[in-house]
Every structure is written in C-alpha cells, then in structure tokens.
Amino acid sequence: EAQVTQNPRYLITVTGKKLTVTCSQNMNHEYMSWYRQDPGLGLRQIYYSMNVEVTDKGDVPEGYKVSRKEKRNFPLILESPSPNQTSLYFCASSLSRSSYNSPLHFGNGTRLTVT
Amino acid sequence: KNQVEQSPQSLIILEGKNCTLQCNYTVSPFSNLRWYKQDTGRGPVSLTIMTFSENTKSNGRYTATLDADTKQSSLHITASQLSDSASYICVVTGSGGGADGLTFGKGTHLIIQP
C-alpha cells in the first residue's frame, strides 16, 4: 500500500531532550516536506526537500533540523525541544512539487508535547 | 506577500444540506489549486485539483470551481453527510508562493449535525 509513515504517533518529552521523528514513504517520491499544525494557524511548513541531499527552509525552520540521505526517508530532528514546539506534526511527499498528477500524500501525524 | 484566505473559518450545517466553502488567493504566477480534506486526527487527503484552464471539477458530491481572473475558488458540497465533518484546506501552487511555491490556507472547519 502506498503510504507515508510517521513515527511515533504520540510523543511526550521534556525541554532540552533531543528527539527525532521519522518519516518514510514507499512511493519513490522526490519531494518531501514537514509541517506543524497549530489551532488557528493552519499548516505551516518547517523544511522541505526537492530530492536526495537537497533540503531548504520553509516558513518556520527555527529549532528544527532535517536530513535527506535516502529518497524514502526524511527525519525531523529537534536538537533541544522547547514547550513552544508542542504541536501536531505532519510529513508529506509527492512525485514533484507542482506536478498536476502529484498531490501531497500526508502521514497520519505526530502529536508532540514538550513539558 | 502571497496569501491564501479561506472563509468561513468554521461552519455548522444540518445533514443533507448543501454548503459552499471559499478560497481567495494572491499567489502569482498561478500553477494549480488543490482542495484537501482533513479528518480529525488524520493527515489531509487531496480532493481535487484545478488548473488555470479548468472552471469546474467534480469528485462525487464535491464540486470545485475556479475563477482565475478574480483568483477565487469554491468547494461546494451537495447533500452533506456526517462523514463530511472535517477541515477543508485550499493549497495554491505557484512560483510566487511559499519557499517551495506552495501556499496553504488556514482551512475551514465544517461540522455536519444530524
């Protein structure tokens, strides 16, 4: 089944403790991206990647890191989480950024709480 | 600044009624516009895509329209069902959009009451 898999679904951590949220897609998609979703603010892009070894900042990259060493994986790293990073996170992928026949495929989200 | 504005922010209607959600954008140049449906606790799923030359497109009970001149799109839901309760997100692609050309609206939260 074609899908984007995020892990974990739920995560509670403490301030300053490094964490990684994994994202994997099995559709051979070139484009991958990370978003956070907060009430009243909608989806905001953190980082995106057009292809392997190519990553760029989105609208809210502060406090986050990503890597794209393989086409299928795009982990999100929080080196020193803070309470303002408490949010619902989504990973997404598509064949290309703007292709007509290539919608974004989203994972089911990771709800992160930083205390 | 490129923006996508959706209205209303939230909407409550009775099961079986119709409704229309609005999306206005300033992204230019325009490539395409997609509507996504996001069920509570799940990731968004694409409903339909509109390009510059398309005025209307249907997907079951969902019908999207696009007026590229006025930069407006609408999503009409016919004979609503309880399963239509969700957030609906408008996403516009263009070279003048976000860092990667994608600009997201904040969504319309739709509640269908029995």
Report on the structure:
Chain A has 115 residues and is mainly beta. Chain A has strands at residues 4-7, 10-13, 19-25, 31-38, 42-51, 54-57, 65-66, 76-78, 87-94, 105-106, 110-114. In chain A, the strands form two sheets. In chain A, strands 2, 4, 5, 6, 9, 10 and 11 form a seven-stranded mixed beta sheet that branches. Chain A has a four-stranded antiparallel beta sheet with strand order 1-3-8-7, with no helix packed on it. Chain A is globular and about 40 Å long. Chain A starts with a strand and ends with a strand. In chain B, the strands form two sheets. In chain B, strands 2, 4, 5, 9, 10 and 11 form a six-stranded mixed beta sheet that branches. In chain B, strands 1-3-8-7-6 form a five-stranded antiparallel beta sheet, with no helix packed on it. Chain B has strands at residues 4-7, 10-14, 19-25, 30-38, 45-51, 56-59, 62-67, 72-77, 86-94, 102-104, 108-113. With 114 residues, chain B is mainly β. Chains A and B meet through β5 of A and β4, β5 and β9 of B.
Indicate the overall shape of chain A.
globular
Instruction: Describe the oligomeric state of these chains in a short phrase.
Output: heterodimer
Largest sheet of chain B: 6 strands, mixed
Question: Any idea what the shape of chain B is?
Answer: globular
Low-confidence stretches of chain A: none
Class computed from helices, strands and strand pairing of chain B: mainly beta
Task: Provide the succession of SSEs of chain A.
Answer: EEEEEEEEEEE
The helix count of chain B comes to: 0
Secondary-structure element sequence of chain B? EEEEEEEEEEE
Number of helical runs of chain A?
0
| Largest interface: pair, residues per side | A-B, 26 and 24 residues
Determine the fraction of residues in helical runs of chain B and give it as a percent range.
under 10%
Question: Radius of gyration of chain B, rounded?
Answer: 14 Å
* Number of strand segments of chain B: 11
Q: Stretches of chain B where pLDDT falls below 50 for ≥5 residues?
A: none
Give the N-to-C terminal Cα separation of chain A: 36 Å
Q: Proportion of β residues of chain B?
A: over 45%
Q: What share of residues are in beta strands of chain A?
A: over 45%
Major beta-sheet overview of chain A: 7 strands, mixed
Radius of gyration of chain A: 13 Å
Number of strand segments of chain A: 11
